[in-house]
Amino acid sequence: MDIVRIVGVGLITCVAVLLVRQVKPDVAALIGLAGGIIIVFMIVDSVSSIFDGIRSVIEKTGVSSSLFSLVLKIVGVGYLTEFAGNICSDCGQSGLADKILLGGKVIILAMSMPIITNIIEIIVGLLP
Known about the structure:
Layout: H1 2-21, H2 25-42, H3 44-61, H4 65-90, H5 94-126
Helix pairs in contact: 1-2, 4-5
């Protein structure tokens, strides 16, 4: 199972960071980053199967592919900002992590405006 490998890499990275942090804190941050990148590469296959499923839904429902594309971009921004914020927190930069997360939230809101506008137009069109 993939989750066992992911958890294993995560735990090994955690232990390595804890051991190295006592001697070289700057190297410990790099080890944590490397472990995170390895885990991201391990989930690429799962992400490709998700895209295949989404393509199937688009074909079956006839919903605009640009809508799904926008939603996937929004989800990607969320995951990326969370990942970057956690790295900053691990390095002791919680203030910077908070600013990255705030930036991600603002970008997500800006990216979602076409969807919100479309929903409001549909609701107004249904009203008498």
